[in-house]
Write a structure and sequence with these properties.
The protein is an alpha/beta fold and 304 residues long. It is built from 10 helices and 14 strands.
């Protein structure tokens, strides 16, 4: 039910302050919550850790409504560590857990974390079957111990920063606005798969990922991070309409001025700016000419 990821030794045997949430994106709102958990932990001689859920509860509760996540679990764990969190407990979210009452969820926390000294949650956090528990119910159930702090939302341009808002922003291709709310460039991570070698035959070899991406199809300037190195890249996202447009959406990253085999490696694609939308070209000659222009535009964007 629980998987424990320690970023510092023996963290889960210490007194704990627990920051609870899904934390998809680990955006600026989440970062404020985690920062408060660290402060509260320091004041109580405790360690700050997170409690998160995988798979995303919506994927279990609404399986017919696919949700494009901003981060993988691996990305979230890495971001937690970078943000100074001592460890993360991951709840394997199942239909059974989704039926727990709010009281059962709090009982679960007390049983799993007997040295729990504090909780931090966002003001809009809901828990328990049918999202029946809110922060007022949490205060009632928790009582005087552990100490509970409810963080107000972080506001940007008059609206709460949330994972769903960032997804909507990315869906318009507005990477600059998404970056402000995320506190970093939107980044896609995954293992490189074998493609159809179309890019190589055109003179632009690519490292390919198969992933759901909350961005419109098209070409992007990006950086690819692999094996401790960072490479400027031109990235195509789409279904290759020039070749029929069938099959799954692929992310095809062409590294600028270097040709290395990344097959099977875990890479991260950090999107910087959209160059153009997806287009169907008359033939490979026209496509090759357009890719060359995309590469040069990506180079200018990254060098500026």
């Amino acid at each position: 039910m629980l998987a424990f990821h320690s970023f510092i030794p023996d963290v889960f045997s210490s007194p704990l302050v627990l920051a609870c949430g899904v934390f998809d994106g680990a955006h600026c709102g989440h970062q404020a919550l985690l920062a408060r958990a660290r402060e509260l932990a320091a004041s109580r001689s405790a360690a700050a850790v997170t409690l998160t859920f995988d798979p995303h509860p919506r994927a279990v509760l609404l399986p017919n409504e696919p949700l494009t996540l901003l981060t993988t679990l691996t990305q979230r764990l890495r971001l937690f560590e970078e943000l100074g969190i001592g460890g993360c407990a991951v709840v394997n979210f199942t239909p059974e857990i989704s039926r727990w009452s709010a009281a059962e969820f709090v009982d679960f926390l007390r049983a799993e974390f007997p040295r729990l000294r504090g909780l931090t949650v966002g003001a809009g956090w809901r828990f328990g079957s049918g999202r029946s528990g809110d922060v007022m119910e949490l205060r009632r159930l928790v009582g005087d111990a552990p100490h509970l702090e409810v963080l107000p939302p972080v506001i940007y341009r008059g609206e709460r920063i949330s994972s769903s808002r960032i997804r909507r922003t990315l869906a318009t291709g507005n990477l600059a606005e998404a970056k402000i709310m995320l506190g970093r460039d939107f980044t896609l991570a995954g293992a490189v798969i074998k493609g159809r070698q179309v890019g190589r035959t055109l003179g632009f070899p690519t490292a390919n990922l198969a992933a759901r991406v909350p961005l419109p199809n098209g070409s992007y300037a990006a950086r690819v991070e692999a094996a401790g190195a960072s490479y400027p890249a031109a990235v195509y996202l789409g279904r290759r309409p020039t070749y029929g447009g069938d099959g799954e959406i692929l992310v095809e990253a062409h590294l600028l001025d270097v040709d290395i085999d990344l097959y099977g490696q875990e890479i991260a694609v950090r999107f910087i700016r959209q160059i153009r939308g997806e287009r169907q070209f008359a033939d490979e000659t026209e496509l090759r000419r357009r890719i060359a222009a995309d590469v040069e535009e990506a180079r200018k964007t990254i060098n500026n």
